[in-house]
Request: fold
Amino acid sequence: MPARGKRYVEAAKTVGDGGPRSPQEALELVKQAASAKFDETVDVAIKLGVDPRHGDQMVRGNTTLPHGTGKVRKVAVITKGDGIAAAEEAGADRVGGEDLVKDIQGGWMDFEVLLATDDVMGMVGRLGSILRAKMPSKKAGTVAPVNQIGNVVKEIKTASRVEYRVEKEGIVHCPIGKVSFEAGQLTENLASLVDALVKARPSSAKGRYLQKITVSSTMGPGVDIDTNEAARLAGK
Reply:
């Protein structure tokens, strides 16, 4: 294991090794241990009792965090008709139809998230080989009806909507805010994420589902959370 820097070592002393903590206590420790000169992101790693190698155990979806993540995301929208005005009013960075599709085909990719309304999926389909993981899809929550696109833009623009996807090791990584957030806000965001994951539990997943939860800041050490307490908090 590589040697840790002095700042990390000092932060680890703040956190201590008291075993799994309650969500609120763990997040308070993460805030106390954060010492970088920028507003660090608070991330959570959740080990699930699933085997993603099996298609019926792939856990993927999105949820809305009540306090957002503290990040502003660059959003582009492919739409037409009433969807254009709705997306622009909601603050999308770029809105278009055939013109936007042609620009993406030509190499324009100046966005973090690409959304689309469900009435233009014919033209969006031409971008599959180019966009790959950024391709709009209903499963990822990036395709919406025209009358809902404004709300979706706002949620994703302010990063209050986050995507989760289990990795091959069975772990979900997701940001839940910034260290400048109050511990209570971070706790509520965590509860929303855990609740979404519990509801997305595959019927084929056997045994203990929430196996381990660890929170940390960008530059800080991890703090384990009691999974039973996290599940109870999410269920409220």
